[in-house]
Structure formats: C-alpha cells, structure tokens
Model the fold of this input.
Amino acid sequence: LAKTTQPISMDSYEGQEVNITCSHNNIATNDYITWYQQFPSQGPRFIIQGYKTKVTNEVASLFIPADRKSSTLSLPRVSLSDTAVYYCLVPPGDSNYQLIWGAGTKLIIKP
Amino acid sequence: ETGVTQTPRHLVMGMTNKKSLKCEQHLGHNAMYWYKQSAKKPLELMFVYSLEERVENNSVPSRFSPECPNSSHLFLHLHTLQPEDSALYLCASSQDVGQTSYNSPLHFGNGTRLTVT
Done:
C-alpha cells in the first residue's frame, strides 16, 4: 500500500526558495506523484505532477530521484501568498478510486 | 474561476432540515467526486461518479444522498444531519476515473462550509 510521509510544517521567508520533500517508498512502477496546494476555506489546487527526473512549470519544480522513493517540491522565491498547506499524493495501490490525503505540510512564509 | 463551481458557499442548517449542495463543472470531465474536510482532519472521499454512474460509496451514512443527473452536475442531498457533520464539503472532477484517474489531476471547487446546529 503506497503511503506518503511529509513534514507537518515548515517556515520560510519571502524571496527564499522552499523545498518540501515527500517520501513514498512503495510507489508502483507506473504511478505518478502529484502535489496540491490548499488555502484556508478553499479546495486544493493542482500544482504539479511528475513521474521521474524533473518537471517544471510556471509555479514550481518537482525533482524525483531515480529510485522514485521520494520527491521534492521546489517553490522558487516564495511570497506571503504561498502560505498554504501542500499535499503530496501517490495512488494507494489497493483501490480503484481512492486517493489517500494525509495532513500535508503547512508552509508559513514570513516577511 | 476554478472550472468547478459549488453553491452555496456557506450553509447553516438545523438537524431536521433538508438541504442540497450543488456542484457544476465546466471542464468536460467524466468523473465527479464529493469530499468531506473536517477541521484538523485529512480529506475524506465520500462518493465517486463516472459518466453519471456511482462507482464508489465510501461507507457514507444514508443521511447524505448524492445525485448526478449528467456529467456536468453533481448534488449532495442532506437530511437529518448531526452536528459532527459540520465540515467543508468539496466537489471535484477529473478527466478519467478508475486506475487511469490517478494520473488525471483533480480539479476542486471552493467548497460549501456547512454548519449543523
């Protein structure tokens, strides 16, 4: 059963690069890693998805090592508005439809 | 504009009331979902619909009744709720459902904040 582990919380400052690492030791061969961002009282928002090596879009980069047992979400030059909860998700492997949402990482950006 | 619209944004209801939550997606997706997010708890999947057919009912009490009249609309009918049902109810959609859906990102609405008094 694929499961993710990520830090409960992180602090950083405006203008810094923030890296949030997620471990997923039992990820299946064909499965992708997906990251979401959630602000208070809003639905989660898809940020980025990747399978291996590196993926970059206008919001973030996702680094995935060769063994795929972990991944790192990188947010370049964060601002106060990046304060949110970030979720790392991989398919659990035992259900056709269920994604297991953990507590995520609460990221607080300070001035 | 998220592509998934939920109404109402806030709802206060008594335990004997009947109310409905509405969700509409403008993305042409085939799958729609209801999630519950309680304070300090992870998102819990409630129901999944694929092409208007319910494919997952995650042991949800019968006081929650979903309805999917077409692939763009999803309702959650509420009846005789309990105070512990107070939560943020989120609707989501994705292009595909089933094993292929894991690599098909979810698009969420901004939810309905439900308070049961």
